[in-house]
Amino acid sequence: MVKVLLTGGSGFIAAHTLDLLLERGFDVVTTVRSEDKGERILAAHPNTPKEKLSYVIVEDIAEDGAFDEAVKSDPPFDFVLHTASPFHHNVQDPVKDFFDPAIKGTTGILKAIKAYAPSVKRVVVTSSFAAIINPKSHEKVYSEKNWNPVTWEEGLDSSQTYRASKTFAEKAAWDFVEKEKPNFDLATINPPLVLGPVVHYLSSLDAINTSNARISGIVRGFDKESTPPTVTYLWVDVRDVALAHVRAIEVPEAGQRFFVTAGRYSNKDIVDIIRDAYPELEDRLPPKSDPSDLPPDAYGYDNSRSIEVLGLKYHTLRESVVDTVKTLLENGA
């Protein structure tokens, strides 16, 4: 049986990826930061036997040797999906809060695999459109060939810290594979804003993943005065991102970078979909007359590699928003 190590198992993307891996017959060990998180994952899969799903605790992914024990396994691992990385807007110390966990977490697990898990054939790293976008001078069309030109110094500015952390971490991963020539090859998955159904063991709406927080805020009536600004004009459904991770270990030629996006959107589009699908929420929504802030000349995208190599068929924005709101309402929104 094919065995996979999935890091950061209680994260939004990882939780959907975990469900897909189990559906497709993989044996999964997931890393979590605490026993409580691990037990919650097991409780959410009560019919899965323990030889098919288990967890190991890695409290701090930025620590030296953090993954050394986690990558050791009997039977050994065939693949590693590394999704663990910080994404929030509470930046106190850019290096400690973001750069170290993102960069050291990524290089640390690659070092551990090379040293202790020679059976691993491929590592898939969750990167981001943040590592592709050039906010200072946008490309007309973004694709896998583009890299965010952010510098370390620029990344210390809190408005750039998250994007910088993803850029530096992904570059460090490709550099490692090129220089160290390990036993595995690498794939990276680079999504923009990730929307989609929240996982059923979400602890609370206040702890919701950062990208879904905008839909949660709209549904809960936090933006009644006006539609919040969109900021990034590309999006993708979490179920497609999860499938991209799984396909990246199923498809032999998938050892490469993948820009995974369903296309453009604006927050006005999201509000209009909610208004149409959930008319009972009308009194919580921003004014119907608010204009869209999606510029007519907004940057484009080329997602053809993800379609041709990984076989992705993307969810529509309507499908994603309707399903997301449904799960938010089930969780008390």
From TrEMBL:
Keyword Isomerase: no
Keywords: Oxidoreductase
Domain NAD-dependent epimerase/dehydratase: 4-256
InterPro entries: Epimerase_deHydtase, NAD(P)-bd_dom_sf, NAD(P)_dehydrat-like
The organism's place on the tree of life at top rank: Eukaryota
Pfam families given in the database record: Epimerase
UniProt record similarity statement: Belongs to the NAD(P)-dependent epimerase/dehydratase family. Dihydroflavonol-4-reductase subfamily.
Protein's name according to its UniProt entry: NAD-dependent epimerase/dehydratase domain-containing protein
